[in-house]
Amino acid sequence: RRNSISIVSGRTPSAPEIVVVRPEGSTVSPYDTTPPPYEPPPVFPDEPPPPYASIAREQRRQRRLRRTTLVRNNSNSAIA
């Protein structure tokens, strides 16, 4: 009985080659770092644009009002 590892050949017994198997139809290369092409959001002319900026501004205003009232209450309690 001979060993399964044959040292007769010139190659040294190394780890088997790693073969990456990718599903069919995938065209993404592992070295491709470019982002997908930019697609602008769909525009519906009959609808007004969403008021993101105004919503953020309103939230900021509410936070500022809350903070000032808290500070005022704290100062009053400290004085009393």
Key descriptive features of the protein:
80 residues, mainly alpha, elongated
In short:
The protein is an all-alpha fold and 80 residues long.
Structure, explained:
This protein is an all-alpha fold and 80 residues long. Helix content is 35%, strand content 0%. The chain has one helix and no strands. The protein has one helix at 52-79. The protein is elongated, with a radius of gyration of 34 Å. The N and C termini lie far apart (99 Å). The model has no long low-confidence stretch (mean pLDDT 66). Residues 22-80 are annotated as: Disordered. Residues 33-52 have a biased composition (Pro residues). Residues 60-69 have a biased composition (Basic residues).
